Amino acid sequence: MGIKTAGALKALQYIKETTYGIVPAGQLLYGGKLQGLDAINNYDLTAYGSDGSRTTSIVTYGKRESGFKAELGIYRDSGAYSWTDLLELTLGEPSGIRGDIESFSTLVEASPDQYYLYRGCKVNSLSLAGTGVGAPVMASLDALSMICDEPKATKAELMTNIDASIPALNPVTHNTYPICSLSGGITIPAMSYNITISNNLVQKEGIVNGKALKAGSLMYPGDLLGIQLEYTVPSTSLMWDRLKMSETSDFSVTQAIGGYNVIFGGCWMPGSDLPSRSQTDYDETLTVNASNMTWVMI
Fold it and tell me: Do 291 and 89 form a contact (C-beta atoms < 8 A)?
């Protein structure tokens, strides 16, 4: 086994499940180019002290919680691949936010001899970030799973599914300003942005094949406490401060991302992000919360 080097981590691959926690037959789907992966593997550990001693005599392993956090490069639609599949995994169909969300199995190849399989995955949160104009848009995916199987040296030891087809890697970039519906349409001159959707997943414990799992029975989304948009804009006037302080609400923001118009509805400004003043030029953060979102191909 050699030391892991740059380039060993391969693309995120996944397949939607028909039964929670069971890998179905079929070809894997391409999720995006992995730039980083943090694994979650927590136990509800309890240590009991020895009689008449400060040492530990018994350790019990309780409910196991698993999942992962991934940094992904995303690309324009190509073949069976669409970056909006990440939105569907997070929110369901683009017609609205309602009901449960789909579970999926995820395969990660950390190197030619290290494979990980997460089953019963659901998206806890998704962020889309454009760090500058013309810069690639990166996705941050936080997923919880029913279980992560013990890693194996070959993929065949975990599943027999066919690998995903690699799409044309044409990056999604930040090349269009968002528009809010106030006053007939106001351009938001966003130099950078971050869009975050949080599902606040609820895990129901259960026992699967003799293992106590935090999400062993099922997992479902809790309250969607607002979709948050953060735009960094040049501070050039009092307009945004006035809108924040006048309790502006019930408007929409439309942002073109990767060949789709993403429309955020039921928006309001929390008003808690007035800019810091200084003796030099400064930017300000414009925060918008939305109650729903849809997306349509341009």
Answer: no
